Amino acid sequence: MFKKSLNTEDTLENAGLTVEEQQLFSNARPQAYEPYPIKAVEDFANWARANSLWILAFGTGCGAIEMRPLMTARFDANRFGVAGRPTPRQSSVFVIGGYASVKTLKRIVRSYEQMQGPKFVIALGICPVNGGMYFDSYNTVNRFDQYLPVDLYITGCMPRPEVLVAGIMELQKMIKAGKCNGANRYVDNFDWYKANQKKVIKNWDMPDYNW
Amino acid sequence: MTSLNRHTLTGHSAALDFSQPEPVDLSSGKYVKLWQGPQHPGITGNMSLELTLEGDTIIGCKTHVGYLHRGFEKLMERRTFIQNFTVVCRIAVPEPTFNEYLYSHAVEELSGIEIPDRAVWLRTLNLELMRLASFLMWIGGQSGAFGMYTVPNWTLSHRDFVLDLFEEMTGARIYHMYIVPGGVRAGLPEGFEKRARDVMDSTEKMLGQVERVMFNNAVTKARSRGLGIIDPEMIDPYGIVGPNARACGVARDLRKDEPYLAYDQLDFDIITGHDCDAYGRAWQRLQETRQSIDLIRQCLDRMPVDGPFQADMPNVLHWKVPAGETYVKAECTRGEYGYYMVTDGSEYVRRVHVRGPSYTHAIAVMERLAVGCNIADIAGLMVSLHTYPPEIER
Amino acid sequence: MNEKTLNTMLEKLKQEFDISDIVEHKPRLTTFTVSKQHAETLIRELRDREAYTHLNFMTCIDYIEDGIFSLVYMLHNYGKKHSLGVHVNISRNGEEVFSIHTLWAQAWTYQRELREMYGIRFTDSPRLDEDFCLEGWDQIPPMRREFDTKKFSHERFGHREGRSSEVPREHMKVQLYPNRGGDEE
Amino acid sequence: MIYQSLGEWFDKIGNFSLTLLIVTVYGLLMGAFIERIIAKVQGRIGIPYKQPFINVLKNIFKRTAISHGIMFYLGPVFRIAGGIGTLAFIPVIFGSETFSNFSTAGDLFLVIYFMFFGQLGMALGAGESGHPYSAIGVARGLSQMTAYEVPFALAVVAIVLQYGTLSINDIVAAQQGGWQHWTMVTNWPATLAAMLAFLGMTGYSPFDIFLAPQEIPIGPPTEFHSAYLGLLQLNRALFGATKLILFMNLFFGGATGWPELMLKTWLIYMVAIVVGVAFPRYRVDQGIRFFFKLPTLIGIMSIIYVQMVLTA
Predict the structure, then answer these.
(1) Domain-embedded: residue A111
(2) Which domain, by its residues, includes D238?
(3) Is residue D151 situated within a structural domain?
(4) Fewest C-beta in 10 Å: which of A10, A27, D142, D226?
């Protein structure tokens, strides 16, 4: 479906790659998806998506510490259909655990782009909002929403597991209402997001979109 | 081939061979380069390992850190002393208290502040509770790394009960900001002692079950015996500290060797082991968890119930600490945690260096022990060294 | 460690090496400065002869006003329970320094970090030029005093409106005691 | 079997579709039930019963998908073909014309081949995904499969010798008339060997190294997503239940009605769960060594037992 499409009009440059590597990676642009034409089907799909949230197991920052109580016996998020998933291909929720350093941001972008839509981003803590404690740090980004579309913020330092549960339920409500279209926003404003990412990540040695 | 068997050799020469493994020819098709992490569930925290494989065997390992680098040492240079104390606990998320204590202690030492007796005991209690919480998480992590998900659920739920105690004591679950320069922020609430004792009892009972299920388990033994053997000769040249060293029979514990806070008034012995492998280290930590419970009980018994918990302090907004230099350290869960602080008499600190034990455990030691391991054992080995990346890169 | 043995040791070292600024900060911590020429031999001597076998850490202090970096090697003697801080002053402009990666296994990691954070080069230190914490760093090394992290952060990462001050004194002056007009005492 | 007319064929296919549906739904439900039992041991509540269904639906409703090549498409298809094929030749309910599927003489051979077929197809698909963890997972999975197939094959040979037939239907028929006629009683060494092999087949600890999330994130299906993963999940439920039905037929006297089938298969599954919650996982070399030692020995013993005791 998204085979390599060289020599067409609307492709990505992949300028960060060597000529050899450019042959290996797809340079197709991501595409937005429309909701299903029948509303009942879309609602049903949204209900299924909301009740089966698979979180990518990527502890990007200190927020990961409260994910463990959340997933284990005390708070047991499995009750709400939340499960951890070790590979981005199969996950649908990316939990940004607090601050994102530049080195991690690159991996976050990679992992996020490998996730299959519809996909949702929850940002934990105050750091992704405005930098939090690290507003003046030379290695952490201040506004996370410039780099990836965020669907839901859960602020605080640390957000407690109860808040995480509340946030997950809020996300479920939003998905059921069909309001979580971060993946489409990312595609629609793709060039803006890419420009922001490239402004920060200086050694861009990966394809422009990681299929 | 010598690099393959390096870790099995004994003798001084082998321990002192710090040479980097020879780069291999990847184009030969004989080797595979494999990245574990940072997005990988088997990695402790956010770091990555660059492994070179020959079949199932690892012939080269490089640790990559820096995914959590926030530049704390730089940030602290441009914050006043009282602002810093809210920042330091963020350095190591599983054990923030040790950062708070060491930072406060360094500042107190440089400015000559004596803290009241009750604050000393409250700090000791806080540190021991933190040790217990961290060990409980570690036991779960080690068990999970070998693929058994029953034990992590048990230990993490009990860790949560300890966090509840923290919440009563300090108002927060993770970042307490409880130990401030000059003492602590609050005393104990009503009925805390009884609830703490209840948690200790239930945790002790749970540890007995963990011992039966995880430690007396044929498969755990098959997986962890002989994995990641630390040669006792390696301890000084590699700077191995804490339970990793004590499991090799080296009786070094800062709580006993250079007592700080109220540790000289508590009854305990240094626990040592004799198995230098992953199983020995796990056993060592289980015993230290029990010791920690015992120390918490002793603290509750002997703690003064009233009295001031905060020394008289100057106006902290104008606080200038006299010029000086000090290195303070404490025994955290993984070994020697230290703060090196240089002040120049101004409102800002001149230089802080945070020394975390993972700095050597996760890089120099890990890179050496991984060589010759099976790919399946990497997660178990890494957890068994008890590494936390945030204290490496800060 | 009792004072007598410490003094004997320091006297002995003084005769052999160029040592100055001996300060005893507390009974368990003494620091001194040694010239760069003697430092490597001294550290090796301390490790092999005086049983300071444990390298607590190695770091650097930037004295920008004097134009020097002060390297700090913190050594620990487990038997005597005594730490010794060895300062080595080097100039700030790209002076190459000896490496201690043959003495301790973790030393090259510290040196790699110092190369990245201060731009100090250590002779023959392995993997010195590999990235440690930073990736794609295109500025002056960040731990140098002249690097303004807040300015850099605002320029590169932007900032969200709403955060006005990060100095508590200024904040309290304006927000909490507006009537006093800046007179806080 | 030769069918009289086309109409009979359609009947047969219709009946099989019904069986397929019931077994798949039962497999998914039992998955949730087992997860809840595991959760209880761990002190949790666990997933809702509808969760496996929602997971499959969610994956099918994913809006984007990428491909790594033709084999990548075919991997899950082969996998589920293996699952359906296995079920197709197993008589599910003894004595019922509707639920006897395409069971015929010699179907035991066919079933054992089909059990391999899905795994191999999956291996090809996972191989094309190009992910190193998939490759490692496939290598581990296939080598472990080779190991546990040895005691299982020995046990099957033993009961084939015992009953003198290769038809599952006949084997079940021979076990009718009370629990004392079950293979579990008459040929206990073969049952023991097969149950030990069963631990390896289910993919619970200690033999879940091929999908160990701590080392190789999820193993062979690392790259599979969206509808591919939905298919794999459906197959996991179907194939899991099918294996249980096969074991029930071969060793535990089959079932004459759905309630009996559900009770028996659940009890058989519980064997794997009881072991699974209490053990970490073996490394693949340790797992293989395990199967080649005691279970294989018991398997050989069972053949000797059949030859010396039962048929003597």
Answers:
(1) yes
(2) 6-310
(3) yes
(4) A10
Provide the sign of the torsion angle of the four alpha carbons B371, B67, A102, B37, taken in this order.
positive
User: CB of B373 within 8 A of CB of B228?
Assistant: yes
Q: Is B60 a domain residue?
A: no
Q: What is the pLDDT of residues A63-92, one digit of tens each?
A: 788 888 888 888 888 888 898 888 888 899
Backbone angles phi, psi at C24, to 5 degrees: -100, 105
- For B103-152, how does the pLDDT look when each residue is reduced to its tens digit (9 = 90+)? 999 998 888 888 888 899 999 999 999 999 999 999 988 988 888 888 99
- Measure in Å the smallest separation between the Cα of D189 and chain A Cα atoms: 39
Write out chain C residues lying below 8 Å of A140, CB-based. Answer: 157
- In this structure, chain B runs to a length of 394
Over residues D237-247, mean pLDDT: 90
Burial, B277: exposed, middle or buried (Cβ in 10 Å; 0-12, 13-18, 19+)?
buried
Question: Given C149, C158, C160, which is nearest A137 (Cβ)?
Answer: C149
Q: Tokens in use for A150?
A: 């965020």
Residue B48 φ/ψ region, left for φ over 0, alpha for ψ in the -120 to 50 degree band, beta for the rest: beta
Distance in angstroms (rounded) separating the CA atoms of residues A180 and B154: 35
Question: Strands B183-184, B179-180: parallel, antiparallel or unpaired by DSSP?
Answer: antiparallel
Mean pLDDT of chain D: 86
C-alpha–C-alpha distance, residues D223 and B33, integer Å: 18
Task: Give the closest of B45, B153, B173 to A73, CB-based.
Answer: B153
Task: Determine the Cα–Cα distance for residues B385 and B366; give it in Å rounded to an integer.
Answer: 8
Residues C105/C89, Cβ–Cβ less than 8 Å: no
Give a yes or no: residue A94 inside a domain.
yes
Partners of residue B180 on adjacent β-strands:
B183
Minimum-distance CB partner of C143 among B73, B83, B393: B73
Q: Is the pLDDT of residue C45 over 50?
A: yes
- Cα–Cα distance for residue pair C161/D155, rounded to 1 Å: 73
The residue ranking higher by pLDDT, C184 or D257, is D257
Question: Residue A67: left if φ>0, alpha if ψ -120 to 50, beta else—which one?
Answer: alpha
Q: What is the pLDDT of residues A132-169, one digit of tens each?
A: 888 888 888 888 888 999 999 998 888 888 898 999 99
**Residues D298 and D148: beta-carbon distance below 8 Å:** no
Domain count, chain A: 1
B244 in contact with D, Cβ within 8 Å: no
Model confidence at B27, pLDDT cuts 50, 70, 90, reads: confident
Structural domain of A180: 19-200
Cα–Cα distance measured from residue C140 to residue C146, given in angstroms and rounded to the nearest whole number: 9
Are D298 and D189 in contact by the 8 Å Cβ rule? The answer is yes
pLDDT of residue D1: 52
- Put simply, the chain D residues between 40 and 99 with a CB less than 8 A from any chain A CB are 42-48, 50-51, 54-55, 57-58, 61-67
CA distance A94 to A123: 8
User: Has residue A208 been placed in a domain?
Assistant: no
| Domain assignment of residue B44, yes or no | no
Q: Domains along chain C?
A: 3-130 (3.30.460.80)
Contacts of C149 (CB under 8 A, 6+ apart): A136, A137, A138, B71, B74, B75, B78, C142
> CA nearest A48: which of D50, B333, B237, B221?
D50
pLDDT per residue as tens digits for the range B356-381: 888 888 888 888 888 888 888 888 88
Residue D60 lies in a domain: yes
**pTM, 2 dp:** 0.90
